[in-house]
Amino acid sequence: MKNFLFALLITFSSGVVLAQEGDDVGWVARFGAAGGFTPGIVFPNLDPINAQIKTLGIDNLSSSGMLILGGSGYVYVMLVDNLRVGGMGIGGTKTTSGTVQGLNKEVKYNYGFGGLTVEYSLPFISRIAVSVGTVIGAGSASIDVYQNRDNFNWNSAWLNPSPLDPPGTADNKSRTFTNTFFTITPTLNVDIPVNRFIAFRVGGGYIISFNNEWKADNNQSIAGVPSDLKSNSFFIQTGIYFGLFAF
After folding, report:
1. pTM of this structure
2. Residue 204 belongs to a domain with what CATH number?
C-alpha cells in the first residue's frame, strides 16, 4: 500500500511539472479536479402554458429565459488523456400571479435536470480548458396552478367539505402537472483559470428530453396535452470553480 501511494505521489508530482513546462514540451494532458456553483439560464417553450394562463386573467410567464441555479464538479480520469467525468444538478422556478374578481391565482413553472457529465478537453488549446461533452441523466418540468379565496378551512382543505365551511371554500383549488424525462445533453464549456485553484466557467448546451408524457396530481394521465409542450431547451451556464487546475 505504501509503495502504491508513493508511486501515485511521484506520478502526480511529475504531472505538475509537465503541466507547468507545457510551453516547452508541447501538448500535455490536463489533470485536476474541481467543483463549484453554476448559475445559468434555460429557455423552455412556454407558449402552450401561457395560452392557458391567459384564460385565468393573469400575466403570462416571461419567455425571456429562466434563471436556474445549481452546482457541478469533475475530475480528470487520467486513464484517457484530457477526459474528465463528474456530475451536475441545476434547476429553478418561474412564477406569475394576480387577483381576479377576488380570487388569488398563481402559476409556477419548475424546471431542473442533472446527471453524469463526460467531457473531453481539447489538447491543442493552452491556458484554458475548452471541453466538449454531454450530460447523461434525468430531469423534470412541472406546472403548479393555484386558486384560492380568503383563508382555508382545515376540514375542507382535506377534501372533506362540510355545510359549516365558510363561503368561498369551493373556490380553493390547486393542480400539478409533471413531466419526468431522461436526457442526453450535448455541451460546450470553457474554463478560464484565475490561478491553480480558482477558475471561471462559461458554456452551454441543448437539453434533449426522452419522454413528452405529462401527468396530473398523483400520476394521473392527461388527454389533449399540446404536442409542443416539451422539456427540450437550450441553456447557458456560468460558474466559479474551486479545486486544482493544470491547463
Report:
1. 0.82
2. 2.40.160
